[in-house]
Amino acid sequence: MPNLKDLKNRIASVKNTRKITKAMQMVAAAKLRRAQEAAEASRPYTERFNAVMSSLAASVGGSDTAPKLLSGTGKDDVHLLLVLTAEKGLCGGFNANIAKKARAHAQKLIAEGKEVKILTVGKKGRDQLKRDLGKHMVGHVDLTEVKRIGYVNAQDIAVDVLNRFDEGEFDVATMFYSEFVNVVTQIPTALQIIPAKFEQSEGTAPDVLFDYEPSEEAILADLLPRGVATSIFSALLENGASEQGARMSAMDNATRNAGEMIDDLTIEYNRSRQAVITNELIEIISGAEAL
Amino acid sequence: MADTMQFDLVSPERRLASAQVVSVQIPGTDGELTAMPGHSATITTLRPGILTVDGPDGQSQYVVTGGFAEITTTGVSVLAERALAREDMTQEIMDEIMEEAKNTYSKQKEAFDNQPGPVDDAAKLLSDMVAMGENMGLSAKK
């Protein structure tokens, strides 16, 4: 039977853990609200951008002069996987789920005989993929110092990716991140960013014919790189919200588990204490009877 | 013809303005253009410059760098890569974006070894920035 002092110490330590997880949960909740607001705020831009892009892509896409970012290089031998994860852990399966999705994709491509290159954003993803796919890693973007994700961060990543594309380092780029549904549900998602794919809203042909200034091709060439940055930006924001959501529910679970553990330990402690008292009484009584 | 039209200015990070306006002066890549209600549908890319909005209750100005504008007969939406109200534009921000433009320019120069095209584009971007700065009375160190 564990002695009373040990039990008391354990209860105290679990109580401290509970305080920490509770605090982390509340911090995550506050950050989640901010992350959601940021995601919300970026939506008008992204929506309009994609609307214009898809109508442009539809009219220029078919021609031979279409930019490579849209039509692709004509091959799909080398794949770049852009894996976006968090910088911090303690957020449930958030990082692991993204890494798992990316790993499965990478292994499928390797099995098909394609070349795979991996660019990671966020420390956790890099650490998880390093073990078995370390030799495919071509770079890492560190966002540890970044307090609040800005468009600039996305732009930097996009510039890196686009430079690699211009140098012919890869043919297809796919981005992995987690889509935020709600606090308990985040869906790891794969999105092809190069060559760009735009959802063609069929049947709703553009009702207005636009004049383009300068030419359609020039605008498209100007906008496609921005499109990459925009999709990376919205993925980063989704990821940010997902991370906080995942952390919030993970910490909620941890707090609850700690609470249960404290209850169990307290019962054990009380029983032991009662046993000690009973023992002492028996000793006293039997001592008195012997006289 | 309607007297006013819907105007939206959005950047990736937030929506800056959404209002009924009389006219919008847009710094397009090929030159300034002013959109008023009933303007023919146009999409144009932007150069760094000042976006002037004439509303029913006065004029407001925004500094924009890059992006594009979508003009329809009933409204204008400007999607700017970076946009802020003119009052918020400070020397520090100016210096910062000048620095960025200069970096791009020197990088392009190195990478493309003075071929026309990307280098010219970057040079134009830089000179547009300088022009914008001078226009606003902010010094743009060359």
What does the model show?
Chain A: Its main location: membrane. Chain A: One of its GO terms (molecular function) is ATP binding. The complex is a heterodimer of chains A (291) and B (142). Chain A has 291 residues and is an alpha/beta fold. Chain A has 2 domains: 4-20 and 252-285, ATP synthase, gamma subunit, helix hairpin domain (Helix Hairpins), CATH 1.10.287; 25-247, Pyruvate Kinase, Chain: A, domain 1 (3-Layer(aba) Sandwich). Helix content of chain A is 62%, strand content 14%. Chain A has 6 helices and 6 strands. Chain A has helices at 4-60, 68-71, 94-111, 123-133, 151-166, 216-290, and strands at residues 78-84, 115-121, 137-141, 172-180, 186-194, 211-213. Chain A has a 5-stranded mixed sheet, sandwiched between helices. In chain A, strand 1, helix 3 and strand 2 form a beta-alpha-beta unit. In chain A, helix 1 runs antiparallel to helix 6 (216-290) and helix 5 packs across helix 6 (216-290). Chain B is α+β, with helices and mostly antiparallel strands. Chain B folds into 2 domains: 5-86, F0F1 ATP synthase delta/epsilon subunit, N-terminal (ATP Synthase, domain 1, Sandwich), CATH 2.60.15; 90-135. Chain B has helices at residues 91-112, 118-136, and strands at 5-10, 15-21, 23-28, 31-35, 42-45, 49-55, 58-72, 75-85. In chain B, strands 1, 2, 3, 4, 5, 6, 7 and 8 form an 8-stranded mixed sheet that branches. In chain B, a hairpin with a 2-residue loop joins strand 6 (49-55) and strand 7 (58-72). Chain B is globular. The mean pLDDT of chain B is 80. Chains A and B meet through helix 1, strand 6 and helix 6 of A and strand 5, strand 7 and strand 8 of B. Strand 6 of chain A pairs parallel with strand 5 of chain B, so a sheet runs across the interface.
